[in-house]
Design goal:
four-stranded mixed beta sheet; 29 strands; single chain
Length: about 375
C-alpha cells in the first residue's frame, strides 16, 4: 500500500514540474530542439539541443532538463542572382521582359535592380522591361540590395532593309505645283530608315531631304530615292498651266477707262491688250492678227493703225488656241469737209486777229479827228 502511494506521489511531482516548465516556456521547438522565448526574445534549446557551447554548458550543469541559451543565428544573404529570359542577342527595336531571383531562396536581400552599361544601345527599367534602342554590345546587370550582381552580355543587331518603294508618285504635275513624297521601307522594323533624294534635272524639278518636290520649268526629270544599296525611282513630267480664256480690252491711256466706241479716224492708232485667265497661266502671251490689213494693221503689242475707211476684226490668240475678237471701224473725213473745216478755222482765226486790229484803226481815226476839230 505504501509503495503504491509513493509511486503515485512521484508521478504527480513529475507532472507538476513538466507543467511548470511548459508554462514558463510556451511555444514549440524547431528542428534544432529550440525556440525563441516570447517574453525575452532570447533563443534557447530544450533537452540538450543546440551548439557545442550550449552542450558544454549543459554538461557542466549535468541536467538535460535545464534550458541553455545562445546568440541569434546570422542572416542569410544572396550569393548569386539567377536571371530568366536573357537572350544572347536581339534585334534593334525589340523589347523583352526579364526576371531574376536571388539564391539561396531564403536570402534576405531578394529585391533586384537592373542596369544597362549603355542606354544608347539598350534600356531596362525597374521591372526588367528591356528595349533595344541602338545597335552594338551592352552589358545588362541584375543586382541585389546588398550588391550581389550577375552580368550578361547582350548583342543588339541591326535590322537591314530588304526593299524600298517611293510613295506619292505622279506621272505629271503642273509647273509651280509641289509634291510630297515618302518611302516605304520593308521590313517595318528596319533599324535605319534614312533616305537620300535626287533629281536628274534640277532645272525642271528639285527635291529636298524630306522628299518635297518643287517644279520649276516645263519638262521631264527622274526622281530617285536611295537607301544604302537599295533604290527606287520614277519619271515625272512638269506641264504648263494652259490658258482657259482670253479677253481683249481697249483702254484710253489718258483717262484709264475703256473706250465707249471702237471707231477711229484713219491714220490714228489705238493700243489693245489681252487678259488671259487663269492669272498663273504659264505663257500668257497672245498673238495678234487682223482680218483685213488694207483697213488696219496690228503689231505684236496690240497697237492698231487705221489705213483705210472700213471695218476690221482684230483677234488675240493664246498659245493653246484660246481666242477673242473685236470689230473696229475706221472712218475718213472727206475733202469738202476738210475744206469747209479749214475755212471755218481760218475765219475764226481771222476774227480773232482782225477784230482787235480794226478796233485799233478806228480808235486812231477818232483820236485824229478830235485833234483836228480842236485846232
Amino acid at each position: 500500500m505504501r509503495k503504491n502511494i509513493f509511486s503515485a506521489l512521484m508521478i504527480g511531482i513529475v507532472m507538476v514540474v513538466t507543467a511548470v516548465s511548459v508554462m514558463g516556456h510556451p511555444g514549440r521547438t524547431d528542428a534544432n530542439g529550440g525556440h525563441y522565448n516570447r517574453k525575452t526574445g532570447e533563443y534557447h534549446y530544450h533537452n540538450g539541443g543546440g551548439s557545442s557551447s550550449s552542450s558544454k554548458s549543459s554538461s557542466k550543469n549535468n541536467s538535460s532538463s535545464k534550458t541553455s541559451t545562445y546568440t541569434t543565428p546570422k542572416p542569410v544573404y544572396a550569393t548569386k542572382v539567377n536571371v530568366q529570359n536573357m537572350p544572347s542577342s536581339i534585334d534593334a527595336g525589340e523589347s523583352i521582359k526579364l526576371s531574376a531571383t536571388a539564391y539561396p531562396a531564403n536570402a534576405e536581400d531578394k529585391s533586384i535592380t537592373w542596369e544597362s552599361s549603355d542606354t544608347s544601345i539598350a534600356t531596362v527599367d525597374s521591372e526588367g522591361n528591356l528595349t533595344a534602342v541602338g545597335v552594338g554590345s551592352v552589358v545588362i546587370s541584375a543586382k541585389t540590395s546588398r550588391g550581389t550582381t550577375s552580368n550578361f552580355k547582350l548583342i543588339v543587331k541591326e535590322v537591314v532593309a530588304e526593299n524600298i518603294m517611293i510613295d506619292g508618285k505622279k506621272d505629271s504635275v503642273f509647273i509651280g505645283e509641289e509634291l510630297q513624297l515618302s518611302v516605304i521601307i520593308t521590313p517595318d522594323n528596319t533599324t535605319y530608315k534614312n533616305v537620300e533624294w535626287k533629281s536628274e534635272d534640277e532645272s525642271v524639278a528639285s527635291v529636298d531631304s524630306t522628299g518635297k518636290v518643287k517644279t520649276l520649268a516645263v519638262g521631264k526629270t527622274t526622281i530617285t530615292a536611295v537607301h544604302k544599296d537599295l533604290t527606287d525611282s520614277f519619271e515625272i513630267e512638269v506641264m504648263p498651266i494652259l490658258a482657259e480664256s482670253v479677253e481683249i480690252t481697249c483702254i484710253n491711256k489718258e483717262t484709264g477707262q475703256s473706250y465707249e466706241s471702237l471707231r477711229f479716224e484713219k491714220g490714228k492708232q489705238i493700243e489693245l491688250s489681252a487678259l488671259v485667265l487663269p492669272i498663273d497661266t504659264t505663257n500668257p502671251a497672245v498673238t495678234w492678227s487682223s482680218d483685213n490689213f488694207d483697213i488696219a494693221n496690228v503689231d505684236e503689242n496690240g497697237v492698231v493703225v487705221g489705213t483705210a475707211e472700213g471695218k476690221v476684226k482684230i483677234t488675240a490668240e493664246t498659245e493653246n488656241g484660246m481666242t477673242d475678237t473685236i470689230e473696229i471701224e475706221i472712218y475718213e473725213i472727206s475733202v469738202i469737209v476738210n475744206v469747209i473745216a479749214g475755212i471755218i478755222v481760218f475765219l475764226m482765226f481771222a476774227g480773232i486777229i482782225g477784230g482787235p486790229i480794226a478796233f485799233i484803226v478806228w480808235l486812231r481815226k477818232k483820236i485824229k479827228a478830235k485833234r483836228s476839230n480842236t485846232n
